[in-house]
Amino acid sequence: MTLAAPAERAATLVEALPYIRRFAGQVVVVKYGGNALAGASDDDALALFAQDIVLMHQVGMRPVVVHGGGPQISELLGRLGKTSEFRNGLRVTDGDTIDIVRMVLIGQVNPQLVAAINVHGPLAVGVSGEDAGLIRAVARDADLGFVGDVESINPMILNALLADEFIPVVATIGTDASGQAFNINADAVAGAIAEALGAEKLVYLTDIEGLRRVIDDPESLIRQTTPAELDGLMADGTIAGGMIPKVESCTHAVRGGVRRAHILDGRIAHVLLLEIFTDEGIGTMIQ
Q: Which listed residue (68, 69, 70, 174) is catalytic?
């Protein structure tokens, strides 16, 4: 046995030290999506993600997890014999469907994330955008039913949990002034929460390695960029489809005071730690 492996581990810890000092006490909002997978199974992916979040918390950072649950919603709708209809990428959500969405996000996905984190101690608390008026929603389009946009964020409950050193895990259901529930895009919610909390970082875990200047060229990965450059890439069609909500949320959040936003490949084990605590970093950073 050589000393190479222990020496490398020690070097990694030393490399992380300035980042631990820099980000101590700072809020980091992490959007965890259904496509952000690492390891051989969903359970493995969730366990690795939970380890990253707990380590961030243990070194003094203040992580906030935001999640959606599109694949799980589609699965349950299918099992119940309901067909999902999408318009411009948005699920048409009638009265029955919004009940199913609430059931999945608040009753299934949120508890799974909370439980995975709490394997490491009593740290995570699940909340919904309905709790304490966290997410005020407004209907996007009458033809879409109960699909909403973020009208405002009331971060009171998140600030209270962070002050007590808990990790909030947020399900992206919002309500309007009458109490009607709406399903809201989780990317948009993550960005709005990051702005409301004055976050140091906003991180999206997805199923690509980052943004590219040339879609089919892996060598064109964009390591660092600005909101202005991303506006141009969206305008010329380089960034399209499902990446648009993420990129729009990133640019809006950075312009709104969030210091940095990141788009990372959640299929890479411990990608959060690689981005936050190493010199080289990984994925795409917007600042």
A: 70
- The active-site residue out of 246, 265, 266, 283 is 246
- Domain of residue 243, CATH code: 3.40.1160.10
Classify residue 130: in a domain, yes or no. Answer: yes
Q: How high is the pLDDT of residue 34?
A: 59
Domain containing 94 equals 25-286
| Number of folded domains that form the chain | 1
| Whether 191 is catalytic | no
Burial of 250 (0-12, 13-18, 19+ CB in 10 A): buried
Whether 34 is a known active-site residue: answer yes
Does some domain include residue 15? no
pTM (two decimals): 0.92
CA distances from 63 to 194, 256, 258 (A): 11, 19, 14
Mean pLDDT, contiguous 10-residue spans, the chain (287 residues): 67 86 96 59 79 96 95 91 82 93 94 96 97 97 94 98 98 96 95 97 90 85 94 91 86 96 90 88 90
| Residue 31 a catalytic site member | yes
Q: Given the DSSP bridges, would you call strands 62-67 and 124-128 parallel, antiparallel or unpaired?
A: unpaired
Known active-site residue 187: yes
Of the candidates 174, 187, 265, 283, the residue annotated as catalytic is 187
Our answer to whether residue 70 is catalytic in this structure is yes
